Amino acid sequence: MVKKTAPRSQMTSEEFARAVRERLEHMQGVAPSSACVDDVYQAVVAVVRDHLMDSWLATKDMMVHGSTKAVGYLSAEYLLGSQLPNSLLNAGLTDQFEQGVRSLGFDPEQVIEAEHEPGLGNGGLGRLAACYIDSLASLGVPAFGYGIHYQYGIFEQSFDGQGRQVEHPDYWLAGGDPWGHEDLNRSRRVSFGGRVVQEGGRRVWEPAWCVKAVPVDYLVPGYASGRVNTLRLWEARSYDEFDLETFNRSDYLGAVKPQVEAETISKVLYPEDSTLEGKTLRLEQQYFFVAASIADAIATFYPGQDHPDLATLPDRICFQLNDTHPVIGIPELMRVLIDDYGYDWDAAWSITTRTFNYTCHTLLPEALEEWSAELIGSLLPRHLEIIREIDRRFVSDLASRGTGTDQVDRMRIVTAGPDPKVRMAYLATVGGSYVNGVAELHSRLLKEVTLKDFSQVFPDKFMNVTNGVTPRRFVRLANPGLSDLITEGLGTDAWVADLDLLKGLEPLADDPAFVDRFIQVKRQNKEDFAAYSRRRYGFEPDPDTMFDSIVKRLHEYKRQSLKILAVIAQYAAIKDGTADPAGILPRTVIFGAKAAPGYAMAKLTIRLINNVARVIDSDPETRGLLSVFYPRNYNIELAEHLIPATDLDEQISQAGKEASGTSNMKFALNGALTVGTLDGANVEIRERVGAGNFFLFGLEVPEVTRLYEEGYDPRSYYEADRRLKTAVDMVASGVFSDGDRDAYKPLVQDWLNKDYFMTMADFSAYMDIQSTIENAYRDKEGWARKAILNVANSGYFSSDRAVEDYLRQIWHTGPLGQE
């Protein structure tokens, strides 16, 4: 008998249907008999929100009036995915929804698909933030997620006739925002520009302009916790939206200019920043949401107090800086404490450094955000003064510790020279209590390489919290077949809230009946993905082939180029007869990625992948043997269909460059095997699932470092491996560009002359491991056993565990009602 622990609301399906009907008739003015699916979706969301409202209000009240420290998670993005199924699950309303909607004559799946995925995030950073706010609520920890309510969010991706990425606005709010609650009564003023003047003994900022930050609240229900936290996203508005005098002069565009300028701040996620205007907008966005969030936190925890005792702020809330985007919050809190509340520097600094913590998500020096001091000074002149004073005092402190001059210069927050830069990662490290990496290897390299000087001076500041993903969305919802099998195998569904219980599946890897059921689930998932793909993209992958997936942001260090070169080499072997068709393992290679609009090399790689797909998929000699599929606009919806169907997950970034990754965790939890380098969380996944259940290849960090130091010659690898030479030459000769030899010239020249991320050096090892993979895959039962062991040993990679690590090591708080 299976023990059920999942939340289930006392609301019946009849009551749910009645509430939807009443909402349709009384609030939307639509009879159920004439309602469309979108009408029903809007009504269902309202019913779910109403059902959660009492818990939300109670959670907020307990957070404000209790003694448990809250968490303020500051993030520029939240990649939420569809909210309806997750909210139904966590609220215990899934069955009632399905039965109630059917009784009204509608298909529950169509109602769920009516939701437009929120355009509030881009990739791993935003997905991680979404997982963490889910886990915080599920663990009962009081928390606010703070960010921006982007009108368009990240772009929608399509491909033109040449295979090039084309960016389109993501009109995710075209149908309204039924989940978001706008609260004009809690708006905040955010100021910019102007000058700083001396008044008596104090510095006074006189801003040139300001905008209104309007909060849009989303309810974040926890799974089986009874708690509902808040995701508060800020939307920019003008205080002077319309100039009637200007309008009456027939200058209609001028009349709304203040409105347009203000709303631009929350218009688009990550505006292209190759221009000064783009950089200015990005800095405006970052300051906008952290300034509003800090003001909101003070108003929330010290309601109605003109002179609150902000010395207690670190006991009321701690702010987690999710990467460098919110780091401007450190000088902002200093400004608030000193200028608005009259604290002296030392008191303000003590409060600030105990309130902030910083998560670093990169090892790439170029990805550690820096801002021109001139730009900060023009936009936030008081903050630049405060940053310079932080830097001055920090340098003085280093000198008093006996730190060498060269090291002090390397650690300056504000660089010297004619064009000084503010190093935001350094400011975050100095201005917070803790700095954490997001995987064991990443955290070690942060201390040994990226932030080495700081770890030497402040060793106790550095922590590791390996990333995690929520099992609710990425197993329970995305993979119901596997979820049911796990529950059956364990005899309980408690694993959904305690992923360590998956360890109990280990003995079942030797149970032939369970292995057979596992194979059937994977096959059904592949068939379901093929049907979804045909319906959504017009491409139907063959479930009889291996589904080989590489999905992640398109970046050179993630090495999608390595995968496409291997595909080309395989294609060449089929064409020239080197590969015996009878011995080829049929596979469908699936790419999913967006490239930043201004990232020319990444966009050229996308063009190459699409044109390789075009050539291979139109060639009768490859039919049934090799296929390449690049679905446009990779998002959470696509991930939830693809990940459960994938056989082989590609995690092939250069060793030492990937901070952690979270897609690797999702794939392992869903029964895919990984081929990967010793990079990011791959290291920990391999340790936990077992070396024999992970396909390792490639250079390791010490070897990469040695090659950099001794001099790396990519052309020597090209000359030494016939397969690689053939693949590169095919790209150069125009095989995938209709004979145009210049189309991919920048890629080819980079591969042969620079190849910073060592694609050429790892190619041979990668091709060799693919042969090992193919032999393993031919043993269907053996492959399934390995996959089951991946699932059984991936419980560590739950976002619940990651949040518990933060609670214990960094935030020093816990669930509501616990000290």
From TrEMBL:
InterPro entries: Glycg_phsphrylas, Glyco_trans_35, Pyridoxal_P_attach_site
Alphabetized UniProt keyword annotations: Carbohydrate metabolism, Glycosyltransferase, Pyridoxal phosphate, Transferase
EC top class named in words: transferase
Catalytic activity: [(1->4)-alpha-D-glucosyl](n) + phosphate = [(1->4)-alpha-D-glucosyl](n-1) + alpha-D-glucose 1-phosphate
Taxonomy, superkingdom: Bacteria
CDD domains named among the record's database cross-references: GT35_Glycogen_Phosphorylase
Documented EC number(s): 2.4.1.1
Cofactor: pyridoxal 5'-phosphate
Function: Allosteric enzyme that catalyzes the rate-limiting step in glycogen catabolism, the phosphorolytic cleavage of glycogen to produce glucose-1-phosphate, and plays a central role in maintaining cellular and organismal glucose homeostasis. Phosphorylase is an important allosteric enzyme in carbohydrate metabolism. Enzymes from different sources differ in their regulatory mechanisms and in their natural substrates. However, all known phosphorylases share catalytic and structural properties.
Family membership noted in the UniProt record: Belongs to the glycogen phosphorylase family.
Protein name as annotated: Alpha-1,4 glucan phosphorylase
